Fold these 4 entries.
Entry 1:
Amino acid sequence: MVALVTPMLEDESVDFDALEKLVEFHVKSGTDAIVAMGTTGESATLDFEEHCEVVSFVVDKVNGRIPVIAGTGANSTSEAIHLTKCAKEAGADACLLVSPYYNKPTQEGLYLHHKKIAEAVDIPQILYNVPGRTASDMLPETVIRLSKINNIIGIKEATGEIDRVAQIKSAVDVDFDLYTGDDATAVDFILAGGHGGISVSANIVPQQLHDIYAAALAGDAVKARELDAPLQQLHSDIFIESNPIPVKWVVSQMGFMGEAIRLPLTPLSEQAKPTVRQAVEAAGVKI
């Protein structure tokens, strides 16, 4: 699944023409689902109206061909409920809810936050644990508690800690999904029992990642690692500056959109471009 970037015009407004091109690219390139308005989509700097409009637009353009998952997390529980309601009204298939950022809730706070959202909006919901961005870590025992809530159906686990797969799987129902949010360790995550991933790299190499994940899900570790080896530099170097700065630059160089990004993020620095370019070309993509 791709954590889709949000293309923008020079005035920082959303470029819906480019967004439509990206949707078509992913539908045709083997992407299994699109995550619109995740953190890679700059959800933190789009207002409520823009956020809902992007989700609705992607749902409309996908037109049922693959699932659309809407990022609807916030550090305010009431705001997260509002965004999740918008996503349901827009026709999203599920929502992805990043843990509250900056305010650093306790484990009980994380549990009650997600419980309240799940009870308020009847739509499948995926937890998203990324302590490097939120400054709080949703521990396996909290995930296990939340998995008992009917419409909380899985987690995007972005710590890169592979042992969490076994910890969580041993105590949740078989239909609770575990997705990695760490491209560099995705193969190991899936081979350890994970079900897939929500990927930044998939903005650039969707077909390759589909094939890698399919091999890993089939238990073919040799093939999965062989296919993933040329992408390891990409997985690393597209985080050389804060996400989504590098990946937006790459997608612009692929011809899908301009380079615009919304403040406080800034375009990729000149000194970083050769490193990112080399990683992209090592992955087999010419820009």
Note: The beta strands are 2-3, 34-36, 68-71, 94-98, 125-129, 152-157, 177-180, 196-197.
Entry 2:
Amino acid sequence: MKSISPNDPILLTSSLHVDEARKAISDLVNGLIHESASNGNATDIETVPLDQAINRILARDLLSPINVPAADNSAMDGFAFDGKCLDTTDTEISLRVIGTAFAGKPYDGQIGSGQCLKIMTGALMPSGCDTVIPQEFTTAKDEHFIIFDQSQLKRGDNRRLCGEDLQEGKPAIAAGRLLRPSDLGLAASLGVAKLEVKRKLRVAILSSGDELSTLGQPLDAGKIYDSNRYSLTGLLNRLDLEIIDCGIVRDDPASLKAAFIEAATKADVLISSGGVSVGEADFTKQIMQELGDVGFWKIAMRPGRPMAFGTLKAIPGKSSATLFFGLPGNPVAVMVTFYQFVRAALLQLNGASQTEPPLTQAISAEPIRKKAGRTEFQRAILGRNADGKPTVKITGSQGAGILRSMSEANCFVILGHDQGNVAAGDWVDIALFDGLL
């Protein structure tokens, strides 16, 4: 796939494939990262307490300060013994129980031939023992002896080795990780109380349009409440970024330019909604040509066909460029384009190693009409059929302005560029909202 820059002529004459748009954005973000690093302006690193590190990007590899496990221990409740006794040709093994080892209370005695030790999960393996037989595989011969069939295990079974999970000095969590609850638990298990993370990106958001009203105001004729900034705030909060809310800007070139300059001065990224179509009052294109290198794209997707993307460079008093996204004005299109393009770019700019959300599949519970030649993001509800298989059903009308279709859904059905109509019973790709939106 060839590289495409924001002001490439192809963007003005044809609809761009979703994958082409994604690659163009990634290439430009990489350029910003390299430019920042070469100028000595790489993203700052800060140290935060472990309980404040959720959804932050790990800046450096977390090296384990200890071996995990710290010593050989039992993987389950059972009886520990020297596995050499399994070398016999006898089918049945009989061992004398001489004591008990508890987790956190090591057994100090020696285990001799023909002897074993009752042991609990996590207890240190006593000297001379290398194998554990699970308790449920044994029979009590009397209060002092157990017997078991040696075919049920082999030497070394059910023993966790020192450093088997993590070795001291080796990476426990790699840099670039978007930290999840399990990562915080892992760090805590190593005794690590603080983590080095990337500075939060500063992201400015604004909505443009004379038709927009602020919450709490009465709606005049032809007016609508601005929902996009609230959707974007929720989306950005999922990534734990610093949000700069620049409010509503009217359809006036001077006002828009002043708002863009002010926002770009404060932020690493500016996201606007509205004003990127071909309407007479859409002044974004004119202003962007004055302030930076921004392309205006028609993307072969539904919803979210018009979008602007690039960098704002001619900002007084600021040496670094500000990444810019001009999203459509329709509420659903705003969320879809954020999901498809903006989210990955923000993670990439902030140093994340994994930027694309995972996909899975489900069975379509109904026919879905789809025109080949564009990628579609249908809002849907994932459930299960009578056989327990995952099924998905579209949430009614899929218009770009029907925000209810997003509110009721728990996933996207993603229908590929070359895909046509879907029949009931066909498998389709889905992306879950949870942890994403």
Note: The chain has three domains: 10-44+200-349, 73-160, 360-432.
Entry 3:
Amino acid sequence: MTIMDTDKQLEICPLQTTAEAEACAQMMAGSEPWLTLRRDYTVSLKILTDPTREVYVATLQGEIVGFILLNMRGAFVGYIQTLCVASQWRGQGIGSRLIAFAEQRIFTETPNVFICVSSFNPDARRLYERLGYELVGVLKDYLISGYDEILLRKTIAPVLEFKKPDQL
């Protein structure tokens, strides 16, 4: 699945190479909120290369400008585990495009998209709420003492009423 934004020529494609994974790990490990969350390069690379996750990379004229990592297994199927946009590209709609891409992918299998945001990251929380995500709950001191993880959800139907597109 690939999306092309004709205004900015933004491409979103599955992560394919070790070099892409390394570039994404470097991007994540060198920026907030992952600095505060103590997610270094090694941990970031391990997460990005986990075969149970789906990773999609956003490129603009060949340059990696962001990525999104999805978990389509477990208790919260449709969980956006990580959204990262290179610091110099933030505020230009790339995060919104990555989330829209993830929602399109997730809503083919489940009616809910989940995402957590750290309490010290109010800009990200505003973005998610602007995109229609609503508060589910707060995980107090979940990753780091003194900071909470805020669980948000966007839904298109109750689970028991959801029909996959191929079932319509």
Note: The CA atoms of residues 120 and 147 lie 7 Å apart.
Entry 4:
Amino acid sequence: MQARFLALALLLVTPALASCGFTPLYAAPGVSPGLSTIETVAPQGRTGFLLGEALDDAFARDLAKPAVWKLKIDLKETRTPRGRRVDATASRYELVLKANWKLVDAATGTVALEGETSTEVTYDRAEQAYAGIVASQDAQARAASELARKIQLQLAVWIARGRGG
């Protein structure tokens, strides 16, 4: 009975969604191919490398073709102790990544788009030294991945509005 109701509801809702004009961002013509023409110039350091790798994966960069755009990123990483124990040591840390980025035409060097994107993650301070290093590195990876997702979304919207072609 419940399966029939669900099927009927889907049948009724589908035409309404199709007629409302909703188009998923990545279904817009040219968004995915536009993102694949962006070459990431990653900043130095572990977090910069992780951010560059996440952006390259997100853009699905086609290495067989020359880059049309270069994404230049200036990355600032801030680690702040949060929460205090009785012995005045931090129990948690907050990692804030802030990226000032510019999308530059690869041929002419002119800036087409620029933005500022940031993200923050927290992690526990571990008692063992190795566990603390692993927690810190995991936080860097999570922050870089989230920052890449935010930058990708901003660039996809720009391309979908017809400014990237």
Note: The longest strand covers residues 69-84.
